[in-house]
Amino acid sequence: MPKITINQEKIQELLTRGVDEVINLEHLKKRLLAGECLRIKLGIDPTSPNIHLGRSIPLLKLKDFQELGHQIVFIVGDFTGVIGDTSDKDSERPMLTSEVIKKNMKDYAKQAGKIIDLKKCEVHYNSKWLKKLTYDKIGEQADQFSVAEFIARDNIKKRLNEGKRVSLREVLYPLMQGYDSVMVKAGVELGGTDQRFNLLAGRKLQENAKPKQEAQDIIMTSLIEGLDGRKMSSSWGNVINLTDKPKDMLGKVMRVDDGLIIKYFILTTRIPMIEINSYEKQLTSGTNPKIIKEKLGYEVVRMYYGEKIANKTLLDFNKKYRDKESPDDIEKLISENANETIIDYLVKEGIIGSQNKIIPSRSQFKRLIDAGAVKVNNNTMLSHYATIRDLMTQDAEIVLKIGKFSDYIIKVNLKNREVSQTYKTKYQDNLDIEQAKTDVFNYVEVDNDEIHEEQNIYKTKSNLFY
Prior knowledge:
The chain is α/β, with parallel strands linked by helices and 466 residues long. The protein has 22 helices and eleven strands. The strands form two sheets. It has a six-stranded mixed sheet, sandwiched between helices. Strands 7-11-10-8-9 form a five-stranded mixed sheet. Helix 14 runs parallel beside helix 16.
């Protein structure tokens, strides 16, 4: 039997920090203060390959219970993930295949292990018991709920009022999540506020189980907004993943709305509340939010990569954006075909594509160009059709900046590396401009009066840059 820590201050924070509602608060508090060893359940469906900061919120609460000595139970919803929970959706969630779920959950427990101690944790996959359910058993469970209870939920009511489809499959999901609680004999279940109906279903099924179980207490944690201000969700691509590279993790945190800084500190870190209150006072008194946000970004990176990497990541960030130096780890790429368009090249390199939630398509990259968010060699790019050759410097290099935080250096591997030198010589002497521009830029027309030696740049009639 593990030793249970009874610390009133820690228990109070456990029940209040980032918590919207507790059912039954007094009952749970009494059990905690009595030193009862509780079984704390959290289930997560692997509907995407990565756990993001939004899902870290209940995981951090699970860790808080673990540090007090309680038995934590982590359920990977490999069966419920196929069915799909629409608690937070305004439309029907598509049914996923078991193959997709299997691929997604490959590293799920490992990612959760960045927060909780898996050696002291029970890990279950709910297909183990949900696959075995028969119609008569499902009928018994369904008989404990009414359709009226299900459609009274705000998002379901809204969909029905709008004439949108609500499938019977969606009705079954709360039963499955509730049955998980029966199977692991949960004493407490954690979940977001959008999970309220499902969490209460667990209580009802436990009370009607054979043999009867004591109804679980419930802690509902607050939801966190993502990079676009909507609820953080893999479906919307507005997430900060636990698997993001340190520089990407920090960069994303720095993009979070200033009004969310304190909320992120409370929900996604375990910085002491007294320190967070100090940051809040500093922001109120006029401190630059960027200063406090850097502390937040540092802490998030430190939690998942350690202090050494967090220090280096923040140092590189400040080199780049405060001191205007090039960071040590800027991504370097090689182009073997100077005549392909920059968009085709970025698709080939995976910088544009479905695997990149920030730039998931060519259309999105074109929208970024139109918004002036793409810079090449410090010039704003305008053309959708510019080739590598159009954009490279005389040193056969492109410094590409997409938005605020994505930077790349593209080295162009020319077949004739003397081309740049040929152009440089003719450019300096202002001789044979027609031949020089053909050698280097092929079809890009350059006016004689647009070549400026002191600026070491070229401008084109094709309007590649401002």
